[in-house]
Design the sequence.
């Protein structure tokens, strides 16, 4: 099977030698959906950054990350630029920091479309409107600045930008954590539809087990930088084997129990 | 405690709350539920006396709340904030943080302060030696316990909490909800909580007021509002909660 993403024995270290991620291995085939779940400090976001070669200064990756056949670990920036966007693009948690506050949404969405598809002028403008329409944003959003639209609309715009690159893999790092619950439900449904339509692979990172379980076919449970359990979502949610996974599932169920009782 | 037909507008702005009435009944924890920008936190600020309604009244024990500085009111009504990282002064020892309301409100004689702090720390499940340490030495969940200890040290009757557990990981969240439940039962303390998390609301509160765009959409007993929501917005809220029980 030709893997889209193959992570082997990935470690991330600080410059003082302290290890934050310990020997993580996983693979992702085209069209597959994998969830990385863990609590704060478990290393899930660092894993996403390492996959894209975007670790902040002072942190180094070791091991192997093959993304569309290209080795990311130790690769020079220029080689990674060719990879980012095409092979994988990312949607972050906070769309307000992912978007340029001084640029209208339309221009920001136009950027990746121009680079990826080489469109200009009227063709570019209509491609931008089509991209916005796909994420259910009205035309007027193209002329708005990020602060003029809601959080949900901003995240839709960020998704439109990520998808404009037509990536084989979408990495979504807590994409709905900053959103209200009804907006979260809409954005999750949107992501699900768009990914299915494009047969894209998805690496979904989150802390909310119920959210991640809703989008991912397989799960990896991270704790303090190590994978403690991995497997099919259904199996993990129904029969967690590792004590840590069990405590996560139990806590989530315990919190839900009262709501389930009142509003089944 | 009661908000009677309160409205609030920032200077020169449109109303962010209009004609909102909620009642807090002793022993019935109340959740104020809604999405961001709905006016939940503004309502909480009015109840705390930190802002004055531009119309209507906030009443406590049947009397209008005029100032947050009113000592009797402040002793009876204490806040807990969302982020346990920004709500505790990093330069002060826990002893000083927790004893602050006692000193500011002159709620007890000086020589009793140490005992009161120890008792508050014990009731939130922190060890006695926590008093001599600094906030950075504690995890998020423990910090929220410190914030709760500070809120209950002067034995208030009402705790006004703004998203008290939403910054915490799920296992910690369960334990802090458990703690709030225990405290409200054992100390005759009524919790008023702003939250967007319906699971937390269901676990802790007997009453719910749903706010949508500055107005009350629906209110009543938690079991009724969640079990058979009558307002379309409440229905949408309940349906949108991601649940593990579906997988």
Sequence:
């Amino acid at each position: 099977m030709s893997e889209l993403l193959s992570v082997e024995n990935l470690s991330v270290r600080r410059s003082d030698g302290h290890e934050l991620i310990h020997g993580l291995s996983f693979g992702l085939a085209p069209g597959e959906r994998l969830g990385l779940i863990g609590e704060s400090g478990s290393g899930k976001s660092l894993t996403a950054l390492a996959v894209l070669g975007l670790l902040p200064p002072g942190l180094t990756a070791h091991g192997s990350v093959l993304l569309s056949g290209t080795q990311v670990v130790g690769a020079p920036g220029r080689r990674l630029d060719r990879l980012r966007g095409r092979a994988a693009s990312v949607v972050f948690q906070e769309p307000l920091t992912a978007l340029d506050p001084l640029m209208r949404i339309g221009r920001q969405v136009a950027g990746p479309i121009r680079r990826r598809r080489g469109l200009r002028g009227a063709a570019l403008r209509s491609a931008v409107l089509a991209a916005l329409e796909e994420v259910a944003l009205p035309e007027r959003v193209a002329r708005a600045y990020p602060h003029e639209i809601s959080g949900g609309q901003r995240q839709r715009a960020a998704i439109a930008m990520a998808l404009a690159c037509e990536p084989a893999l979408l990495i979504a790092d807590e994409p709905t954590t900053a959103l209200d619950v009804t907006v979260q439900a809409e954005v999750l449904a949107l992501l699900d539809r768009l990914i299915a339509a494009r047969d894209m692979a998805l690496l979904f990172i989150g802390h909310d087990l119920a959210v991640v379980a809703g989008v991912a076919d397989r799960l990896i449970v991270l704790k303090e930088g190590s994978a403690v359990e991995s497997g099919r979502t259904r199996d993990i949610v129904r029969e967690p084997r590792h004590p840590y996974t069990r405590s996560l599932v139990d806590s989530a169920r315990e919190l839900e129990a009262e709501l389930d009782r009142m509003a089944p | 405690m009661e908000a009677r037909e309160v409205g609030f507008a920032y200077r020169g702005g449109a109303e962010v709350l209009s004609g909102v009435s909620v009642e807090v009944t002793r022993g019935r924890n109340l959740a104020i539920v809604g999405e961001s920008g709905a006016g939940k936190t503004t309502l909480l600020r009015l109840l705390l006396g930190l802002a004055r309604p531009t119309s209507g009244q906030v009443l406590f024990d049947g009397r209008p709340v005029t100032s947050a500085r009113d000592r009797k009111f402040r002793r009876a009504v204490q806040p807990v904030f969302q982020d346990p990282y920004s709500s505790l002064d990093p330069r002060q020892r826990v002893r000083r943080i927790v004893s602050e309301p006692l000193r500011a409100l002159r709620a007890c004689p000086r020589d009793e302060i140490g005992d009161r702090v120890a008792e508050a720390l014990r009731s939130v499940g922190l060890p006695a030696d926590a008093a001599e340490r600094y906030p950075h030495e504690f995890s998020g969940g423990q910090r929220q316990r410190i914030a709760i200890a500070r809120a209950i040290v002067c034995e208030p009757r009402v705790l006004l909490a703004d998203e008290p557990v939403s910054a915490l990981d799920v296992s910690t969240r369960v334990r802090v909800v458990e703690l709030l439940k225990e405290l409200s039962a054992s100390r005759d303390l009524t919790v008023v909580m702003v939250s967007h998390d319906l699971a937390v609301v269901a676990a802790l509160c007997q009453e719910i007021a749903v706010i949508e765009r500055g107005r009350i959409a629906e209110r009543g007993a938690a079991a009724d509002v969640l079990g058979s929501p009558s307002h379309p917005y409440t229905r949408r809220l309940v349906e949108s909660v991601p649940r593990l029980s579906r997988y």
